[in-house]
Specification:
Blueprint: H1 2-10, H2 27-46, H3 61-77, H4 82-106, H5 116-139, H6 149-173, H7 176-192, H8 199-228, H9 233-261, H10 274-277, H11 279-288, E1 306-308, E2 319-325, E3 335-340, E4 342-343, E5 347-349, E6 361-366, E7 376-377, E8 389-398, E9 408-409, E10 411-415, E11 419-424, E12 429-434, E13 442-449, H12 460-464, H13 472-478, H14 488-500, H15 512-524, E14 530-531, H16 536-542, H17 549-556, E15 558-559, H18 561-574, E16 579-585, E17 589-591, E18 594-598, E19 602-610, E20 614-618, H19 652-655, H20 672-694, H21 703-716, H22 727-737, H23 742-756, H24 764-794
Parallel strand pairs: 14-15
Antiparallel strand pairs: 1-5, 2-8, 2-18, 3-9, 3-16, 4-5, 6-11, 7-10, 8-13, 10-13, 11-12, 16-19, 17-18, 19-20
Helix pairs in contact: 1-8, 2-3, 2-6, 2-7, 2-8, 3-4, 3-6, 4-5, 4-6, 6-7, 7-8, 7-20, 8-9, 14-15, 14-17, 17-18, 21-23, 21-24, 22-23, 23-24
Length: 795
């Protein structure tokens, strides 16, 4: 083994014909590197991100990863540089992967052979997939695309790239940490967003990574012993390998045992407000992510400024927030977080996108004496339209809901802290209310409707006679629809609904209330539509081409609350009736004055505007949405400013008294696993950056240059050499200041003496080792400088 090791260290750029079959680094190094990359391919494949998992052609990822490793090793062994290896490998992958993906896209039609015509057909199929994706996501601006073969291309590029990087860094740079970090980050990222159990894959990766690191270290030790002729390198290597294998086995077995038996959550609740900062990331992943698999949520409970209807409703099971009610308050309410004003054909936005005519958001900050903790008015003009309401006071304690949005039923009026009221239009039409202090317990006062046949109460009779004289600005905002918002299927659905109901006698048959109630009943009926939280397969089957989410819902005949609420809102707008989507949470579980609202109760519903009354809630999702019944009431004119008996409306002075705050601490938010993943990713990125900085220069370095540069840097730190010191004396003195770099200092000092006094010409391999030692020593000195700066600031 000694001879082989020495030969490996002294041959910087072998010719192609002189490369031995057995790698000098050992077969174990090659097998461990290949295993890590194949585990990455297997992890992506196991997650089943695409819906064509029954097609055997999709199981190509581990094998193209193996080809990537082979190419990286090949480039390193024939003496190519990093860029040449990767560029040529990328060109080859650009030829091979489209052929594989084209075969997947063609499906059963892929039996075209591998002749010129077959190759052309495969390339054209891949090109067609790319065209369709560009059309859907960029030209049409859709939230998702019905294509999925392009994800195979993306995954293939990731795995091939990881394989080439791993092969070249291990066998070219001899830096296995780079390979472990890059491949490990990719595997952890995939595991973090899939609910598939991939513990076995992580065990295999961990064992392969540890063996790779140990085997590479053994190889470096063998080189050192061979150069210095200290004993038999082969014997030393065997001792290291046996000890390392025992360590790996113990570490893997211990980790698996701990994973199965551990019940603690040390990171539970740490940085509990982190998910709210990642809301945009979640929406981005939902838009560009593949349509299949069983994705794991990011631990975020919230809605955001915009929402795209994806085809999968996957709420969290955590507790969103807790409510402390006033004694005697027994009304069940939906907890509204905000409303969406703009339909984008594939989802909803708070405000208009570029090119749309809706007025921009108006953001008004309401400030008050937060120390008093008394609910104060917020600057939203909309409650002035709310007639037939009474006050509802509650104290909210957020838990998993970390969005920064104030939660309140129906019309929010007051909140006990500084708040940003976000609205659209000059009339201040409500969108959301946000506060930087909303993650702590806060008290709200809201106006909730009184559904009673009393003067000023909300009844069917009064809503039927509300008329259609809407404020012009409000009607312009809440009846606006983009081009192609509805297609043939949704237009036919609207006509079917209009034909399905008959207004009561002596009532205008075109009144908005009866049309809205007929829509609600028609959509909620299981005979017409089916509630389904996962309609991704139906979208791919029925919603190809330029199809809006409402048209898609009409074609599929199934969906979840987003589809139901969007369809009803858009059809009402198409009928000239102002309507908007409201989002928040269904009523929670109540015990006495306590209410616990689960994140699984996240919900969308519809609000319709009626002159003289304001916004009235409808829920076309049926029993899932817990619709609010409205009494028929007597026929009579609406009362714009009601005088309601005190027995019906609570005394406002009494209701304004904030209830007692719930005692005890806030329970864990359930984001512990997410935080752990984030911490691992950050550590991995930092490790990768450090490994990249430590990567040895590709060019050799002369001892005089290295020694002079280190001396100048040390002089800036106040550790420069004294005139009377010899090279070795100075190296020893500097080593006392930087103990971690003693070996590097010895390497540079010995080379400096050999060149300056022995007049020796060092071999290229020796000069490369000098460059490596110089790089590590330089980093050690810079680290010492940073530590000194930190200590000075603390003083």
């Amino acid at each position: 083994m000694s001879a082989g090791v020495i030969a490996a260290g002294a041959r910087p750029a072998p010719r192609l014909g002189s490369i031995p079959l057995r790698p000098a680094e050992g077969w174990l190094t090659l097998v461990a590197t290949a295993a890590m990359v194949m585990v990455l391919g297997g992890s992506l494949q196991d997650a089943a991100w695409t819906p064509d998992t029954n097609n055997p052609d999709v199981n190509f990822l581990p094998w193209v990863g193996l080809l990537g490793v082979a190419w990286g090793v090949f480039g390193a062994k024939i003496g190519w540089g990093r860029w040449r290896t990767h560029v040529i490998g990328a060109l080859l992958a650009g030829l091979i992967l489209p052929l594989i993906v084209g075969g997947i896209a063609l499906g059963h039609a892929a039996d075209v052979g591998w002749g010129p015509e077959g190759l052309t057909a495969r390339f054209m199929a891949t090109f067609g997939v790319a065209q369709n994706v560009w059309r859907d996501l960029v030209i049409l601006g859709k939230a998702t695309t019905t294509e999925y073969a392009h994800y195979h291309l993306v995954f293939g590029v990731i795995v091939v790239g990881a394989g080439m990087l791993a092969g070249f860094t291990v066998f070219g740079h001899r830096r296995p940490l780079d390979a472990v970090v890059v491949v490990g980050l990719a595997i952890i990222a995939n595991m973090a967003i899939t609910s598939h159990d991939q513990l076995s894959l992580m065990v295999i990766f961990s064992a392969a990574a540890l063996l790779l690191l140990i085997r590479t270290h053994v190889f470096d030790e063998e080189l050192t012993w061979a150069r210095r002729k200290i004993g038999d390198p082969g014997t030393v290597g065997q001792l290291y390998l046996r000890g390392g294998a025992a360590f790996v086995a113990a570490a893997v077995i211990g980790s698996v045992t701990l994973t199965w038996s551990a019940s603690s959550a040390p990171l539970q609740g740490v940085w509990a407000d982190l998910p709210k900062h990642l809301q945009g990331l979640q929406h981005l992943l939902q838009q560009i992510g593949p349509p299949g698999g069983d994705p794991r949520g990011l631990g975020i409970v919230g809605f955001g400024r915009s929402a795209n209807t994806q085809g999968l409703w996957q709420p969290s099971e955590a507790i969103a927030f807790r409510v402390q009610r006033n004694p005697g308050e027994d009304k069940d309410v939906k907890w509204r977080a905000g409303t969406y004003a703009v339909y984008t054909r594939f989802g909803w936005d708070w405000e208009a996108r570029p090119g749309q005519t809706l007025q921009p958001l108006d953001v008004t900050t309401s400030t008050q004496d937060v120390a008093s903790r008394d609910p104060q008015p917020i600057a939203v003009g909309e409650p002035g339209y709310a007639v037939g309401r009474r006050e509802f006071v509650a104290t909210i304690t957020p838990q998993a809901f970390r969005e920064g949005t104030i939660i309140a039923p129906n019309e929010l009026e007051r909140v006990d802290r500084s708040t940003r009221a976000i609205s659209v239009g000059g009339g201040g039409y409500f969108t959301a209310a946000e506060s930087d202090d909303s993650l702590n317990t806060y008290t709200i006062a809201a106006a909730v409707p009184v559904y009673q046949d009393v003067q000023g109460g909300v009844t069917e009779a009064r809503l039927r006679q509300a008329g259609t004289v809407y404020p012009s600005e409000l009607k312009g905002i809440y009846t606006a629809l983009p081009t192609k918002a509805m297609g043939p299927a949704s237009t036919a659905l609207l006509q079917a609904i209009k034909d399905s109901y008959q207004a009561p006698p002596d009532v205008d048959p075109s009144n908005p209330y009866d049309l809205a109630r007929a829509m609600e009943a028609y959509l909620a009926s299981p005979a017409n539509f089916t509630y389904d939280s996962d309609v991704r397969d139906d979208i791919r089957a029925d919603c190809t081409g330029d199809v809006s989410s409402v048209e898609c819902f009409a074609l599929m005949g199934r969906g979840y609350c987003e589809y139901y609420a969007s369809a009803m809102t858009v059809m009402l707008r198409a009928s000239g009736i102002p309507a908007r989507v409201a989002y928040g949470f269904l009523p929670g579980k109540r015990t006495d004055t306590q209410e616990v609202v689960s994140a699984a109760s996240a919900h969308w519903w519809v609000e319709v505007f009626f002159p003289g009354t304001g916004w009235v809630e409808f829920d076309p999702t049926g029993q899932v949405g817990q619709p609010q019944p409205i009494p028929s009431g007597s026929v009579g004119p609406p009362t714009l400013k009601p005088s309601v008996p005190a027995a019906t409306f609570q005394d406002r002075d009494q209701a304004s008294v904030p209830p007692q705050r719930p005692g005890g601490g806030v329970n864990g938010t359930g984001v512990g696993p997410f935080i752990a993943i984030a911490v691992i990713l950050v550590i991995g990125v930092l490790a990768l950056a450090y490994a990249a900085i430590r990567r040895a220069p590709t060019k050799p370095m002369h001892p005089d240059k290295a020694w002079g540069s280190i001396a100048r840097l040390a002089t800036r730190l106040g550790l420069g050499p004294r005139p009377s010191q010899t090279v070795f004396e100075y190296a020893g003195a500097l080593g006392d200041e930087v103990p971690a770099a003693r070996v590097e200092l010895t390497t540079l000092a010995r080379a400096k003496v050999e060149v300056a006094y022995g007049k020796r010409d060092l071999a290229p391999d020796r000069l490369r080792r000098i460059a490596e030692a110089y790089q590590r020593l330089r980093l050690a000195l810079i680290g010492m400088l940073l530590r000194r700066g930190i200590r000075r600031r603390r003083r």
